[in-house]
Amino acid sequence: MEVQILAILAELVLEKLAAKTWEQIELAWNVESQRLKLQKTVSALKELLLEAEQRKNQGRQQLRGWLGKLTDALYDADNVLDEFHYHSLQRQVESRGGIVEGTVRRSFFTFTEPTFSYKMGRKIKKLRRTLDDIAADWSRLCLPELGVDMGIVQRDQSHSYVDPSDVIGRDHDKNVVIQHLRLWTGTLSVISIVGIEGIGKTTVAQLVYNDPWVVGHFRPRLWVCVSKDFDVERLIKQIIDSAEGGNCGEVSMDEAQIRLRRVLRKKRFLLILDDVWNDDRGKWLDLERFLRGGEADSKIVVTTQSRSVAAVMDSVLRHDLSHLSSEDSLSLFTKHAFDNRVQERPPILESVAQEIVKRCGGVPQFLKTIACSLYSKKELRIWISKRDTPLKLRLDGLPSALRQCLALCSIFPTNFRFYNLRLIQLWIAQDFINSSHTNEDLEDAGHQYMDILCSSCVLQRCEQDYGVFFYVQIHNLIHDRAREAAQPEYTVLNFHNDAHAHPSQTNIRHVSLSEDEWPAAERVLDVLRALGKANKVRTILCPFVSVKDIDESFISAFIERFKYMRVLDLSYSCFERLPESISDLICLRLLSLRSNIRIRRLPNSICKLYNLQTLVLLDCCALEQLPRDTKNMIRLRHLEITTKQSTFPELNDSSLHFLGIVGCIELRPLFREGQSFPALRTLFIHKCGSLESLLPSIRNLTALRTLKIADCEALDLLDGDDDGFPGFQTLWFLVIVNLPMLEGLPQWILRTAKSNFVQRIVIEACLNFRGLPQEVLQNLTILQKFEIRNQERLERLSMG
Fold it and tell me: How many angstroms separate the CA atoms of 731 and 109, rounded?
């Protein structure tokens, strides 16, 4: 495992040790002292990881062994902490009278309170001893002294100068920013230039800074490179230095802020804050209050890789930099590789140059880096050796958190198409998603991860749906490199090879089953045995195979062996029963039985999966009903379901964020009376032939962002429409496809269209729809949000 990714795992363990739930756990099981000691040890090991990152080229063999031991110990710690958390959730459910009825199986975590406290206390002590020994081993590695500053690593300081003749393809971006500098008058405002690393944010800011109109309009012009250390005192002194051309030195903070306000007083200034990472609004407000002394027409231009930073700084414009066009990319590459000397361009290199340019994906930094490395080189073999360099640069430039997300993608087949929502749920299930804000949804953070990977051309969008839903693929060469980097924790089982050819390793944690046709069940179990002593698997995926021989005993073997599984994807399987022992998987976050056409019922024991976040029962066309105690799954946030029942059982209202209802042909009322779902963000309703009305079920969905309704032949949106429902005030996207009963729009849709949040309303293939009402046609602002497609119905993405 990469050192940086291992540091993320250590941070995850520390976050779990510091969680508020420990207040209840310690009160119940008296483990406070052990937790604090463990917390101290893990914190110390995280510091050692910083040094290990600096030493990764020294004593490589010794470090590999030390890091391997630490990896196993941190995973064990994560499992134990999840076990504590599960037991805490169980107490919550039982305290509300939600004990699962029926035969209670005695699984490995079922103890009396004193027994549980004793056993878990011993586990923590054992963990702490193991981690203490690993920390002590560090001093015995006999590594060379490291004369490197271990503080925050800053990027090279940027500067304000640029020669416009050196810049290709950014005139439009410069003009957009300057246009907004002219438009927003009378107030100190912020304009953010957003894009991935190397896309040219600083270059655009330099072009703006040196534009003749800007030079004449703003005095003073100030340039500060912020980087990751957003220290207000340091930034104030840097702004003063930029204004006065001197050195603020060791003046006090009070003297510095006085000097800053004097420098800016009654002046129309332009401040460039380059490379901002801070998403703490409090820190920004601390700086911003010292900048208010200038004229109201002053401006701040920010460059950042994060949209959340732009939001925190109240940007009046967020300008997202796009990649260079193919023509501009080739021009930039040619300029730096040949210095525009046409006579020195060997024709044999032209095709290789075009291939390299294509793989750079329009990122100027990649183009310049590779072009400069090839300057004056004319040997074909050297140029060919550089063809894969852009892919390496893309991967090396990714944050560690995104590299582990990409590693999980590597165990899918080459050219596999990922539905973005499913991929994000997989990342969330493995704790790969880290929300930077307390109130930020994990799904929102996941979409940001996806945006970065797509902007970096690591993932490529291959099919777009309405709104935020789309398919992505990984470039073949990036897929291969990601798989190499992910070994040995990630592995693919190919059942057509000799079972004993699979590596018998203990550190395999993520397994996917080959896309090839499965052979006989005995052969599958033989391959399972070939995993040897590997019993810490967290992921089992088979969402792309024809699973004909899998049965209850095979699933039971998985459950018995891999107690700490986070993800179990059995999509397209054909077994009839899910074992009662499924409840033993106390850490399970994601369970998919998608497209199982034989399963009729789920055991009620599934409701004891208190950690379950995602349950996919899509296209389980024989499923008669959900278990009666579904409400006990108190962390369930993503549910996709196909069932024959006419009324859903009670669900946990407070946790559900995503609900997909597909092929529920008997469903009549959408929800039970009184259900409100205050956290629901996305609602999909497809192919529910008996559903006649959405009201009053949807009235209380106060957080809804995306609503898609399709192929419901009996649904009348006008049914129940009245003045009592003001529409949705938080909705972003509304999509209506193939509703034969739709002739006109209900008032709740028209009221929703007036919301400032709504970005798009699509009405497609509703052949009886008479058109938009006059009140919409007369209001240009509302009209721009509607898109009507009444041609022949198109096949669209539904649930991936």
Answer: 43
